[in-house]
Each structure stands twice: as C-alpha cells, then as structure tokens.
Amino acid sequence: MDTVIEGRAWFNGRFEQCCIGIKDGKIAAIKRDLSGDRTYHYGDMIVLPGAIDPHVHFRDPGFKDKEDFSTGSMSAAFGGVTCAFDMPNTKPATITLDELREKRAMASMRSWIDFGLFAGVTPNNDVGAMAREAIGLKMFMGSSTQSILVTEVRDIARAMEIAKERNKVLSVHAEDEHLIKKGPALSLNDHATNRPSKAEENAIQRLAKLSNGAKVNICHVSSPEGMAALNATSFTREVTPHHMLLDASVRLGTNGKVNPPIRTREDRDAIFSAFQKGWFNMLASDHAPHSIDDKHQEFGPAPSGVPGVETMVPLMLSLVKKGRLDMSVLVSSCAQNAGDIFGLKKGRISVGYDADLMVIDPGRTVRIEGGSLHSKCGWTPYEGWDAIFPASVFLRGEELIKEGSIVGERKGRDVVASQQLSGRSE
Ligand code: DOR
Ligand code: ZN
C-alpha cells in the first residue's frame, strides 16, 4: 500500500477500528492490520468519507470580488468537503460548451478539491451538447442572483427530455417565477412573503406533471408544502443547513437574505425533522458568498445568498455530538448519496472508491468565527455557533489539511473528465 490510515472508520454503516489501505489514490483494502509506505495512526479518532457538496457557487469567472475557485475550494476543504459541484450562474454563465471547457481549464488550475461543473439550461441553448462534460444540468425556475430563467412549460419539458436522453441529473431551483411577488421588502419576513412556499410547491408540481423518468433533483427544499409536493414524485431531495437552522426571526438582516427564503420557525423545524429521519437524499451548502459590502445595503437591493461550504459538515458534526442527528444520516446525506446519485466512486469508505477522507476528533468543539474561515467573503450567518472541524482531510490518499493548515498540493480535478479518461464514461 502507498498509504495506510488507521482509526475508527465509518464502514458498512458503523464505526470499526481498522486500517484503510490506499493505492494510487483509491481505497485498495480495509483490514484490521495493513502496512504501507506511509502510515497515519489516528487511534480512536473517527474517519469519515470526505463530503460531496452538490451545490456551490464559487463565483469564478466573473465575481472574483466575492469568491474564486481557489478560495471557494480551499474553504470547502477546511470544512471536510473534498468534492463540490459548481453552479452555472457565473459571468459568463456556463451555458455553452466553450464556457464549460474554459471553466474546467480554470478550475483545474485553481481547485484544492475535486469538482464537477453544472451546465446551465436556458430557453434555447444547446445544453445537450454540454451534457457529456457536465456533472449535471441546472435549471432556475425562479429568478435569483444572475440566474438564467426557464419559466415556460415547453422549455422545462425540453430540459427534462435532454436530461433523460443524456442520463444526467437535472438539478432545479424550484420556485415558480409567476408566483414570486416583486413588492418592496424591508425584512426577512417580507422576503419570505414575496417568495411564498406556494411558489416552491407549484414549481415542483409543474415538474411532476412533466415527469418522464429523468433524474430530477430539487435543490434547497424550504417548506412543508414543497416536501408534500415532493412526496408525490420520485425526484431526489436536497436540503441546506440554513433552511434547517435559521428562520426569518433571526437578527441577520440582509445576511439572512437567501433564495428560497428562510421562513418560519415551524417550517424550519419541519425541514430539520424530515432531515433527521433521512427523508432528504443530500445535504448541500448552496454556498453563495457575497462580500460584506454587497450585503451592507438597503434590504431591497441587497443580493440573496449565504456562504456555507466550510461550516456545513462541522455544524452537523456538532449536532451529532449533541445527539440531535444520527451519524448514519450525516454520512449518507453528505457523501454516500451524492456519490450514488451522480454516479461517482466517491463518498464511501469502500474498496475501489477514491480515498477522500476526513479525520474527526469528536472532543474538539469550537465556536465558528467568520473571520477565521477561508472564503473570500469573510462572514458567516453562524457566527459563534458550535462546530467540529476536521483535524485532517485527505484527497485521493494525499493529506491536504492538517490541524488547520494546508499541507498538501493543489490537485483538484474535474470528476467527469477524469472518469472519462479512466474509461468509466457512459
Ligand atoms: O440565494 C441565492 N443565492 N439563491 C440562488 O439561487 C442563487 C444564489 C447566488 O448565486 O447568490
Ligand atoms: Zn444555489
């Protein structure tokens, strides 16, 4: 073995004291004892699969004052996220094959972690031509930051046809534009009134009517009405930490402005309780950084979006420690399910999978400080919250983060391109 990592690993749905043997970046064996060129002994610290975040906005190209692929991916790595899928609402938007390829070339130079790129759907772009090289397709049914809107039934149906034909996940921002009110908003409550649960419910129902067997994934579900609509479908379900941990009564002002909005305490509790039960397939940060200056405006013009890629797993680990979340739900929603849904050999401690791992010392709870995080935006809605950050993070068998510092090289790569190179293409 090139490397052996010994600790209490999450293996086959439980913790087991074992050695993970790694060869050429992949897990080659899991045994009681193994020897290798390099050995890491973590004793009774826990070893989990690196998280896969299926929804981030790293803002590159076009909005590098807010984030870039280097800072976004570094922030991810410090939070135990070893693979993230980037959204297309950049500038230029990722809506042509050339733009997708340019973004891939740029991200391959800058990324600290592995990544996938979403192809943006517009009413008339050739998203089919992009599909083979994209991790999935992204469609916005409601407007948000720099979004590319798709509101007409024929265009939505076309996106679903292409997703099915190309066997790609269609991730949808499901808020029906026709039901979003453009009235003045001075507070988080006003924002939630302008973007009601009904808009989410309706968008999901419109998609359900067009169901054709395509793999549709509903992003950032924010309401019980949305959940009820989803129950009648076979779509996969994504949830964010902010829709489970924050509501419109928090005193965050514009820093809590996000689409879909954070809503009432009851809504938030319903979402969290469904998450606890394993109802959601994937936890996603929807990391959407905006600079402090961009957020410090009047409520109306202030942009929507909250950062979160670095705090997602650490917040959840703290909830596990407090007995509010099962480790099995955390591992499946943060790693396993995204790997399965997007068809990657990632997200599990299992032979043949990429050796993307995080090592956790459960005793090490800290308070989150926006200024100490690695995103360019420099703030967090979770200032002062308890969190457990990984002590070490490995990307494909190489240690990347150790005790709060980067110790590895910048080796992030596009998971779709590398899969095709290794002969696993469709
Ligand atoms: O609040 C949001 N911010 N929702 C989105 O859909 C986009 C995101 C962004 O890119 O800022
Ligand atoms: Zn988003």
* Helical residue percent band: 25-40%
Separation of the first and last Cα atoms: 30 Å
Q: How many H/I helical runs?
A: 13
- Quick one: biggest sheet? 8 strands, mixed
Mean pLDDT: 97
Structural category is alpha/beta
CATH topology of the largest domain: TIM Barrel
User: What is the count of β-strands?
Assistant: 18
Q: Give the oligomer, counting copies of the same chain as homo and different chains as hetero.
A: single chain
Ligands and ions found: (4S)-2,6-dioxohexahydropyrimidine-4-carboxylic acid, zinc ion
Look at the structure and give the CATH class of the largest domain.
Alpha Beta
Task: Please identify, by name, the CATH architecture of the largest domain.
Answer: Alpha-Beta Barrel
What would you call the shape? globular
Rg (CA only): 20 Å
As laid out across the biggest beta sheet, the strand order is 3-2-1-4-13-16-17-18
Quick rundown:
With 426 residues, this protein is an alpha/beta fold. The protein folds into two domains: 3-48 and 352-425, Urease, subunit C, domain 1; 50-341, TIM Barrel. Helices cover 29% and strands 22% of the residues.
What does this structure look like?
The protein is 29% helix and 22% strand. It is of the alpha/beta class. The protein has 2 domains: 3-48 and 352-425, Urease, subunit C, domain 1; 50-341, TIM Barrel (Alpha-Beta Barrel). Strands 3-2-1-4-13-16-17-18 form an 8-stranded mixed beta sheet. Strands 5-6-7-8-9-10-11-12 form an 8-stranded parallel beta sheet. The model has no long low-confidence stretch (mean pLDDT 97). The structure holds (4S)-2,6-dioxohexahydropyrimidine-4-carboxylic acid and zinc ion. Zinc ion (ZN) is lined by residues 55, 57, 87, 286, 288.
